[in-house]
Amino acid sequence: QVQLVESGGGLVQAGGSLRLSCVASRIAFSINRMGWYRQAPGKQRELVAGISAGGSTNYADSVKDRFTISRDNAKNTVYLQMNSLKPEDTAVYFCVAARVYWGQGTQVTVSS
Known about the structure:
112 residues, mainly beta, 7-stranded mixed β-sheet, 4-stranded antiparallel β-sheet
């Protein structure tokens, strides 16, 4: 069974930074697309950023120029570097593999 374990969430002030990590196991990591989604209270889950097996990336308009997704295939890990955080970035962030497998989520809270 595929396992995705996120870490790095927490409480940060507006303007601060956090880096989320997601370690994948029991999956051919290097050939699969990885992504980060988030869900804020009372809202639907939304795609934050994705990265293909070849390293191509895409971002939600709301996070462009602030967030960066990257991957380290040797470590089976995908990262989300989040800078200039805003209160509206507060959500549970989920790591997703191959658009099918989901992690348990990590809470990110940005205080104003």
